[in-house]
């Protein structure tokens, strides 16, 4: 399968997951986010080892890029804390604002609904993987993630940890999709 078809298939899987994800209860989403946070902590050594592979391969990166790529114990703890912070946020799905009644009695209002699928392209910061997956899940949106090729091992490890925990907690398969092909054509 060529890269274009592969990306389209991955996006279709995310789209299929977006429908059941959009109607999940706040409690279900929060349970998954808690499981994801716990999984980050439980799998820290796996994530650190994957990050070491990326750092070993990063011979041409600037000092600032290396700093962004490096997953320190604090950054890993911050990923876990960030997911738990998202749990504490109010669920935006279904909240309404700006309601009014028309002269004919028709009530009109703005209600927040999930977009469906969100695509995120980011570079050199593998911790963004957890942040983005958590925010998209909380807002009822499936996500297609594409990190920089310099962080392929770190991102793959983080996504594997997050998706296993999320899917075990009842999140639809495909809701967190990662394009693990470092080829630029995948973008």
Total beta strands: 5
User: Which secondary-structure class do the elements indicate?
Assistant: alpha/beta
Distance between the termini: 16 Å
Note the total helix count.
7
Question: Which residues form runs of ≥5 with pLDDT under 50?
Answer: none
Order of helices and strands: HHHHHEEEHEHE
Overall average residue pLDDT: 95
* Shape assignment: globular
Radius of gyration from the alpha-carbon trace, in angstroms = 18 Å
Helix % is 55-70%
The major pleated sheet works out as: 3 strands, parallel
Q: Which percent band covers the strand fraction?
A: 5-15%
Strand arrangement within the widest β-sheet reads 3-4-5
Characterize the structure shown.
It is built from seven helices and five strands. The chain is an alpha/beta fold and 187 residues long. A three-stranded parallel sheet has the order 3-4-5. Strands 1-2 form a two-stranded antiparallel sheet. Helix 2 packs across helix 7, helix 3 runs antiparallel to helix 7 and helix 5 runs parallel beside helix 6. The chain is globular. The two termini are 16 Å apart.
């Amino acid at each position: 399968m060529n890269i274009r078809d592969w990306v389209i298939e991955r996006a279709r899987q995310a789209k299929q997951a977006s429908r059941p994800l959009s109607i999940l209860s706040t409690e279900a989403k929060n349970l998954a986010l808690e499981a994801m946070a716990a999984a980050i902590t439980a799998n820290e050594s796996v994530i650190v080892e994957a990050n070491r592979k990326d750092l070993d391969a990063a011979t041409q990166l600037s000092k600032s890029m290396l700093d962004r790529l490096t997953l320190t114990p604090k950054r890993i703890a911050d990923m876990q804390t960030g997911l738990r912070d998202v749990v504490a946020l109010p669920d935006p799905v279904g909240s309404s604002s700006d309601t009014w009644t028309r002269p004919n009695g028709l009530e009109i209002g703005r209600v927040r609904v999930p977009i469906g699928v969100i695509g995120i392209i980011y570079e050199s910061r593998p911790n963004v993987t957890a942040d983005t997956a958590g925010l998209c899940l909380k807002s009822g949106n499936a996500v297609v993630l594409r990190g920089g090729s310099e962080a392929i091992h770190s991102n793959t490890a983080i996504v594997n940890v997050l998706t296993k925990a999320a899917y075990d907690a009842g999140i639809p398969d495909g809701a967190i999709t990662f394009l693990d092909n470092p080829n630029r054509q995948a973008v």
